[in-house]
Write a structure and sequence with these properties.
Chain lengths: 101, 386
């Protein structure tokens, strides 16, 4: 994600909606969707996923970084990241936007 | 319902009554609204001043609603003034009140420094929709919220010290990122304004349905200086043409004004533009404030952006917010078991001594002393009967 919170996933662009607030303290992340009043917490691994997803252009880049940190194969990592993004999207904490031409 | 809005002391009710800038317009508004024999609902009555005045002006009935124990004194005051039969005191929240006949007038002042404060809006919306007669009068009718950019080093000092500068040569800056997400009360000096105030929100209590509030403003600095934050205040129209303003250039009122800090002071030049959106979201019985925007040069070049929220003003933890999460599954803990046991024995038959025995036998390690069990039972009793 760039500093506007946008992550280019090749076919999909994810962005943090403006109505989502984020606080990170002590390896935990708390997110609040102001519209749904839904709170969400990320544990240490979730926080690391979120961090790695900042400032990258593709899921492969994130997988490269995480593969070096965790003893997990690429396919599992891909699945975990995909689940992670879907979960956040499902809670309205990330949204997909159309890629700019 | 929790204890929101019940924390005032008796002397603070005295301060409110002494504040003539506030009281005189309220008295004038009541005079205008009250017809002989009408019913007045006084929400957040404190020691009952508006109910007493309403009766003095000819109201047939007043219902004084207050969650603070001060309402018990209101009963005494009503009797002393000869209106024991006209004033009904309800200790609790208006959201829990039922009326046989709706009120002709609802009067309240549940604001803090700003009208978006604790239970104010949820209470007023509920009362208007459930407890006001058709065509009845709301006092206040509407509040307007104002904001202006400030060059206010004094206001900013408490956000910088001791976190960015201190006499101990320690780096305490980690706290600063929380502190700048907190707004505080601050008596604004009109000389601190970098640009004329803009109105950014109107709350019309006659029609309002949303407890959230949001609005934007654009200010052009009319002098150079340092932008330390936004000053925010309100003006009110209690009833047609009668009201008051809490603006910095007006005589000061009990509410004070609010200061929303910038992440750091920003040097601005005359002609620079300050764009900001302020919002307050009612989430889980508290307001989450947010102020975001940017500062641009007179040519339109962005200098600084900011995005702050009271969400980031206090430390949150997963443990603390877990009950707010929709996917959280509460587990059975020993505290849950104890609570269940206590509640089962609140049956109208079991005396306290038996319940204490029961608790001490079931959890001998937790309740080695009878007094500990008694305190635990009392705690549950008070909570469920609050």
């Amino acid at each position: 994600m760039d500093n506007r919170g946008t992550l280019n996933m090749g076919t999909k662009l994810y962005t943090k909606p403006n109505h989502v607030l984020v606080q990170t303290v002590d390896n935990e992340m708390i997110l609040l969707n102001l519209e749904s009043e839904y709170y969400f917490a990320l544990d240490e691994i979730g926080v690391r996923f979120w961090e790695v997803l900042q400032g990258i252009d593709s899921l492969d880049q994130a997988i490269d970084t995480l593969e070096a940190e965790y003893d997990i194969d690429r396919e599992t990592l891909r699945q975990d990241l995909d689940d992670f993004l879907r979960q956040l999207e499902g809670k309205g904490l990330l949204q997909t936007v159309e890629p700019q031409p | 319902m929790n204890q929101l809005g019940t924390s005032y002391s008796l002397s603070s009710y005295g301060d409110m009554i002494r504040d003539q800038g506030r009281m005189a317009p309220y008295v004038a508004a009541l005079k205008k609204a009250i017809k002989p024999g009408c019913t007045v609902l006084d929400i957040g009555a404190g020691t009952g001043i508006f109910s007493l005045l309403a009766c003095q002006m000819g109201a047939g009935k007043a219902i004084a609603v207050e969650a603070n124990p001060a309402i018990r004194i209101a009963r005494e005051i009503a009797a002393v003034n000869g209106w024991a039969d006209k004033i009904t005191c309800f200790e609790g929240f208006s959201t829990d009140l039922e009326l046989e006949q709706p009120a002709d007038v609802i009067v309240s002042d549940l604001r803090g420094a700003l009208p978006l404060f604790k239970m104010h809006l949820p209470s007023i919306i509920d009362a208007r929709d459930r407890l006001l007669a058709p065509g009845g009068t709301m006092i206040p009718q509407q509040d307007k919220l104002w904001a202006a950019p400030l060059d206010a080093p004094t206001a900013y000092q408490r956000f910088e010290q001791p976190w960015l500068t201190n006499e101990y040569n320690l780096d305490l800056s980690a706290v600063h990122r929380f502190e700048i997400n907190r707004w505080s009360r601050y008596p604004i000096d009109p000389k601190e304004l970098l640009a004329p105030a803009q109105q950014w929100l109107t709350l019309d209590y006659r029609t309002l349905t949303d407890c959230n509030g949001s609005g934007s403003g654009t200010w052009q600095a009319n002098r150079s200086g340092h932008l330390h934050g936004l000053g925010v205040w309100f003006s009110t129209e209690l009833i047609d043409g009668i009201g008051y303003s809490n603006a910095p250039d007006q005589p000061s009122l009990i509410y004070g004004q609010a200061f929303f800090p910038m992440p750091e002071p920003v040097q601005v030049d005359s002609g620079d533009r300050i764009e900001a959106t302020l919002s307050a979201h009612w989430v889980d019985q508290e307001y989450i404030w947010r102020w975001q925007g940017q500062i641009l040069t007179s040519e339109g070049t962005p200098k600084v952006t900011f995005d702050q929220s009271t969400f980031n003003a206090s430390l949150l933890s997963n443990k603390e917010i877990q009950y707010k999460r929709g996917d959280f599954v509460p587990q059975v803990t020993i505290e849950v078991e104890i609570e269940k046991l206590i509640l089962t024995h609140f049956d109208g038959k079991t005396p306290m001594s038996d319940l204490v025995n029961c608790l001490c036998q079931a959890y001998p390690e937790r309740f080695a002393k009878r007094q500990t069990a008694l305190s635990r039972i009392a705690e549950t009793f008070k909570r469920v009967n609050a």
